[in-house]
Amino acid sequence: MKDGFGREINYIRISLTDRCNLRCVYCMPDGVRLVPREEILREDEIALIVRALAQLGICHVKITGGEPLVRSCCRGLIRQIRGIDGIQTVTLTTNGILLPERIDWLKESGIDGVNISLDTTDPKRYAQITGGGDVSKAIDAVHACVKAGIRTKINAVTMRTDNEDLLAFAKDEPVDVRFIEMMPIGYGKQFRPVDNRKVLEEIMRVHPGTEPDLSLHGPGPAVYYRIPGYQGSAGFISAIHGKFCGSCNRIRLTSMGFLKTCLCYDEGTDLREIVRDPKLSDADRCGKIREAAGAAILHKPAAHCFDEPGEITERHLMASIGG
């Protein structure tokens, strides 16, 4: 469906959990106040919500966390969502630590792509960023995905302009390396964002002939560039210095069932209340979900206000919202 500004909303990011096995400095260095498990949506509740939203035109689903692979229902949920009429793609964002041992069932479940969060390949720096994580496990995850034939992307929060270590993944394998500007949400407010335009300038300096890649890489907002001789591409998600709100096509569902229409505002609607209403049949729940979600989407804000931090009304950490 279209929102109040005529944008086609067809993409949802679903957080399975606020739990994570890493403690990244810009996300949850001190952990989060974990909500009781009974307050987190169950597998069948998430599938019901997706089924209702698919009837509104949602066709692309991203599974996120926290770390989604720490939740045992991940496998079954991906399979369920993949089988819902109207759903075209189901992808996963993960830190990769648990991925190699789950790669077979991920592929069997019908996953269309995996994004692996990896900010550096330097072991010491990776440990500092992630609160003691082992970078070799994340690197193994990238290679495991490629070997399994799963479309693979690396998500790197931009913290410096020299990123040749990450770009090396795109040289000999079809891996897209995406640089994501730090957003002032939660702990991200403590960091000064690195301008992705500076990163692109450095790439073009080191790799003359780099040019825009206009091929389709997915439903998200990334802008891609092709480096001569590289199999993969360099992508840029530049919420601060390349504001893409005019073409935003996404909504978010938190692990507690709150449907968010924009990352930086606390606006949206509570769908958990609907799916847990004992007086309703599943058909009635679907109808009410469509009604509530449709109204929220219709009032989706025109744009975020990251350039005016005082206007941000979202107070939760990214892990609680869904990365």
How would you describe this protein?
It is a single chain. The chain has 323 residues and is of the alpha/beta class. It is 29% helix and 17% strand. It has ten helices and twelve strands. The protein has helices at residues 43-54, 74-82, 103-108, 123-130, 135-147, 164-172, 196-206, 272-275, 282-298, 318-321; strands at 11-15, 60-64, 89-94, 113-117, 151-157, 175-180, 211-213, 223-226, 233-237, 250-253, 258-260, 268-270. A twelve-stranded mixed sheet has the order 7-8-9-6-5-4-3-2-1-10-11-12. α1 (43-54) crosses α9 (282-298). The chain is globular and about 60 Å long. The protein starts with 10 loop residues before the first strand and ends with a helix. The relative contact order is 0.17.
Strand count: 12
Broad structural category: alpha/beta
Strand content: 15-25%
> What percent of residues adopt helix (DSSP H or I)?
25-40%
| H/E topology pattern | EHEHEHEHHEHEHEEEEEEHHH
Low-confidence region ranges: none
Q: What secondary-structure arrangement, pairings included, does this model have?
A:
Layout: E1 11-15, H1 43-54, E2 60-64, H2 74-82, E3 89-94, H3 103-108, E4 113-117, H4 123-130, H5 135-147, E5 151-157, H6 164-172, E6 175-180, H7 196-206, E7 211-213, E8 223-226, E9 233-237, E10 250-253, E11 258-260, E12 268-270, H8 272-275, H9 282-298, H10 318-321
Parallel strand pairs: 1-2, 1-10, 2-3, 3-4, 4-5, 5-6, 6-9
Antiparallel strand pairs: 7-8, 8-9, 10-11, 11-12
